[in-house]
Design brief:
The protein is 89% helix and 0% strand. The chain is an all-alpha fold. The longest helix is centred in the middle third of the chain and has 42 residues.
């Protein structure tokens, strides 16, 4: 297991890259979900204001 984690001496490059990639992917999911919720709320507001007219 230690040999795998060491990545034949390239661990200093591989693991930060894996961590950065994971952070970007998680941030992308968070941002997309937030934008969807915001768009849904806006659509609900527009539908509600249009129904009252």
């Amino acid at each position: 297991m230690r040999e795998f984690l060491d990545m034949s001496g390239y661990a200093a490059y591989v693991w930060p890259s894996v961590g950065l990639t994971l952070a970007v992917l998680l941030a992308n999911v968070y941002w997309a979900r937030r934008l969807v919720r915001s768009a849904q709320a806006e659509a609900r507001r527009r539908l509600a204001s249009g129904a009252q007219s």
